[in-house]
Design goal:
Number of domains: 1
Shape: globular
Mean pLDDT: 97
CATH class: Alpha Beta
Oligomer: single chain
Strand order of the largest sheet: 1-2-3-4-5-6-7-8
Low-confidence stretches: none
Strand content: 5-15%
Order of helices and strands: EHEHEHEHHEHHHEHHEHEH
Helix content: 40-55%
Largest sheet: 8 strands, parallel, barrel
Bound molecules: phosphoenolpyruvate
Amino acid sequence: MSDRKPFVGGNWKMNTNRTTGSDLARGVTDGLITVDGVDAAVFPPFPYLLTVRAILRDRGSSVRLGAQDVYHQGEGAFTGEVSMNMLKDCGTQVVLVGHSERRHVIGEKDEFINKKLRGVLENGLEAILCVGETLDERTAGHQDIVTARQVRTGLADIPASLVERLIIAYEPVWAIGTGKTATPEDAQDAHAQIRALINRMYGKDTAQRLRIIYGGSLKPDIAADIFSQKDVDGGLVGGASLNAADFVGLCKAAAGAGRAKP
Ligand code: PEP
């Protein structure tokens, strides 16, 4: 069994409403009752955090409550933003930072992502830093340079003690929501590069403990091959996380892959 417990996150993005989100949360918690060997989290839209939290709590579920984004300031004149304190107040345990849709649709830059990541980790929450190259960057053979820049800049001025609460999600942009998945070999290669970089930045122990998860069109029937790669410690799931059975299937696949690792 791997020392790193697999992690699977369900990023609901800007989907669901109060009724369908509640049904989904109930389906996920019920489906995972007998599943162990995996840390699971759901990331509902902000307005439904408290509703989903109540469902997780009522059922005594170990599924973690996640937020899809955050603003790095504590409070103040930042119209439309949501602070760390607000997320904590709503029971959030883990926050996505630098998702590709924030980077490429909303226009967030590495330096801004670094401020958010520092804020999340300094405030005692867990963070998932999302990195990954676009299709053009991959075609040009720049995938390792791009992900290394995103990791280095994202983690600027963040000490090793805080990296203990970090997960990195390698999510090639061309695979997100497209139905195209990285091959297990390409995913392993990217994850190994990221772990080697963390080794250089923080040392061997931190690098060995860090969970690096894959995201990009994961489905239960293809996930096992990716999850079984040495440096792949689970997944971040968009589309398939909107179906409770699929999400539970992915969690089971990650747990099984974790148990089978030496
Ligand atoms: C994501 O949003 O992080 C993601 C991986 O989406 P999808 O699974 O739909 O590709």
